């Protein structure tokens, strides 16, 4: 079976361009900002703080085959040089980049802190990253990606899922919550941020309704078994403190 189409160069330019465009498929592109010190070549966490820190962009994802085929396919602009803003290089050094199609490619930051990619966040439309712990500063880092239309966040398990909700839930996010996919990789489950929010709100409403339907407990039963006489000195002491504070406030 023939695998080479020798007449391709003789096709009309418009048709060849359409064929090249069909070779572009969505990818997940892994990236990592490797931080180091030039003088000692040590990791950022172990090198002396007085040295200048640098960062190099690393990716194990191969360059798209379309860009390696010929000059014609490369000149169509199907991919762009991206994420070079992450690089911090010595004076005179050349910044590296990753070939990306920002419309369809998902950029996988692994366990890197999204804050390290803030300068290269604008064109990114799809991202993925992993974290077991979330902090309020993560919301700001996430919102640096102002043009984000889809996110995949691996929370590892239900505990991480709940933590993500309590950290991110109160804030307005740049990405539609229906398109934020929260992954529990330990049990191979996925839910959207909106579905998680609806589920937690439903559980809270059920708990509230269950509490509201409880029979009221008489005051006598609430204090049953308590030794009021032994507690009375403490109660009087607290009352004296509150009275003194109110008197000072009025003066």
From TrEMBL:
Species this chain originates from: Neurospora crassa (strain ATCC 24698 / 74-OR23-1A / CBS 708.71 / DSM 1257 / FGSC 987)
Domain of life (superkingdom): Eukaryota
Protein name: 2EXR domain-containing protein
Pfam families linked: 2EXR
Keyword Cytoplasm: no
UniProt keyword annotation of Signal present: yes
Domain 2EXR: 5-107
Cross-referenced InterPro entries: 2EXR
Alphabetical keyword list: Signal
Signal sequence, renumbered to the chain: 1-17
